Amino acid sequence: MTADVASTVYPPEHARDAQAIEAGRLLFAGACDFVAGAPTADALPEDTLPEVAFAGRSNVGKSSLLNALTGRTTLARVSNTPGRTRQLNFFSLGQRLMLVDLPGYGYAEAPKHEIARWSELMRLYLKGRASLRRTLLLVDARHGLKPIDDPLMTMLDESAVSFQLVLTKSDKLSPKGLAQRLETIATALKSHVAAHPAIHATSAQGGTGIAELRAELAALASASQPC
Ligand code: GDP
Question: Residue 133 contacts by C-beta under 8 Å, 6 or more apart in sequence?
């Protein structure tokens, strides 16, 4: 079967209806406030809201996606401030959902001890956070899943932390190329027990798939019990 390229959610039966899209729009139209930056595990804020973490290798397009989702540049600006790039940054979306921006991995120029420090911080957070509802694993549509993404997926599998693939920069592929990429990734995900079956294809540049991803996150916010 070939992917339905008209849908930005694959398989397309996971696409949300108009009501869910509107709920997503409303959630992301509200306030989005920087709450805390945690350079160490003991600096993590109290978990009072359901959380969704954004992870991916550096340069995957995480800042651009966060900007596109929230319709503002505050998030990426805060997260990219020198000193904040290697910490976990927490943003409250209308006091309903916490967006957690994790440090990008695979940054070749960083010193080894720094990489070890923030890998450990991410591990402690991802394994131990009671309020974490899902981790979005961002993957560049042109490149697909790479060995560099394996340690994170393995850790999430082992910790039973639900994760969901979000392709970035989908505008860089032809519809056919994107359909093939989605199928390849869906097959690879079958061996990951913690992987959510639906993949989102997004473009921060063109806005493709942004409304659908907002709807997915709004559903998580409303389905969650208070922490
Ligand atoms: P980060 O390091 O993961 O935060 O990545 P950035 O958001 O800074 O993006 C890295 C590069 O990819 C930048 O040059 C962006 O302009 C580019 N980029 C990000 N999102 C898109 C997209 O949707 N389409 C295209 N064509 N380029 C993008």
Answer: 50, 51, 52, 162, 220, 224
- Residue 109 CB partners (closer than 8 Å, separation 6+): none
State if pTM tops 0.90: yes
Give 1 Cα–ligand 1 centroid separation in angstroms: 30
> Does residue 81 belong to any structural domain of this protein?
yes
pLDDT in tens, 102-155: 989 887 677 788 778 888 999 999 999 999 999 999 999 999 999 999 999 999
- pLDDT class for 4, splitting at 50, 70, 90? very low
Number of neighbouring beta carbons within 10 Å of residue 109: 6
In a domain, 227, yes or no: no
Which is the closest atom of ligand 1 to the Cα of 56? Answer: 3
Q: Is 74 in the pocket of ligand 1 (CB under 6 A)?
A: no
On whether residue 102 sits in a domain, the answer given is yes
Indicate the top mutation candidate among 57, 58, 59 to test ligand 1's pocket, ranked by most ligand atoms within 8 A of CB: 59
Percent of the chain with pLDDT over 70: 91
Rounded Cα distance, 157 and 202, in Å: 24
- Nearest CA owner, ligand 1 atom 27: 169
